[in-house]
Amino acid sequence: MRLVLVSGSARRRELLRGLGLKFKIFVPRLEEKIRPRHYRQDIVRVALAKLDAAPFQEGQVFIACDTSVVCGGQVFGKPQDARQAARFLQILSGQKHTVYSCLALKYWQDQKIIYRHKIVATDVYFREITPAEIAAYVRTAVPYDKAGGYGIQEMRGLFVRKIHGCYYNVVGLPVNDLIDMLRNIKQ
């Protein structure tokens, strides 16, 4: 299988490399707008659009993923600035939120293009975060390229009290689900 990661995410690249997989990278250019009432449908739409944004050839397996953080009916994407990152963390402080990802594959099988996708959900419980901790965190580069404005892997999960579900989903790519999906591709 010739794998192609359709993503600009450094975390997704690191996770795939950590699995010992060889892959190429294609960075799609598209708007990732997620609507609060339609976040499940929208992450599927965006993940599939990423797959279609890349030039496809027989023998390749494209991997795409789109992730959103949802808390109390609000969707938290990537913060635009320090003020928005701080607001996200204030809202998430002391709360449970859910990280939703749509993991999607595109490949050639039985003389046709096949699409497969799966939605993975992980509940994350934050401890109460002080204003000083939020201010220090948003001064780093960490919040700005991550849904919800935080990276569980950075700062040793400083804000996270516990999680239910896949840790790697919160990092940005549900690797166990990916391995299962790749194993189900007929060679």
From TrEMBL:
Cleaved signal peptide residues: none
Molecular function GO labels: dTTP diphosphatase activity; UTP diphosphatase activity
Enzyme Commission (EC) number: 3.6.1.9
Necessary cofactors: a divalent metal cation
Catalysis performed (reactions): UTP + H2O = UMP + diphosphate + H(+); dTTP + H2O = dTMP + diphosphate + H(+)
EC category: hydrolase
One GO CC annotation: cytoplasm
Record keyword Zinc present: no
Subcellular location, principal: cytoplasm
Sites annotated Important for substrate specificity: R11, T67, Q153
GO biological process: nucleotide metabolic process
Localization (cell): Cytoplasm
Keywords for the protein's UniProt record, in alphabetical order: Cytoplasm, Hydrolase, Nucleotide metabolism
Purpose: Nucleoside triphosphate pyrophosphatase that hydrolyzes dTTP and UTP. May have a dual role in cell division arrest and in preventing the incorporation of modified nucleotides into cellular nucleic acids.
PANTHER family: BIFUNCTIONAL DTTP/UTP PYROPHOSPHATASE/METHYLTRANSFERASE PROTEIN-RELATED, BIFUNCTIONAL DTTP_UTP PYROPHOSPHATASE_METHYLTRANSFERASE PROTEIN-RELATED
Family according to the record: Belongs to the Maf family. YhdE subfamily.
Name by which UniProt lists this protein: dTTP/UTP pyrophosphatase
Species name: Candidatus Termititenax persephonae
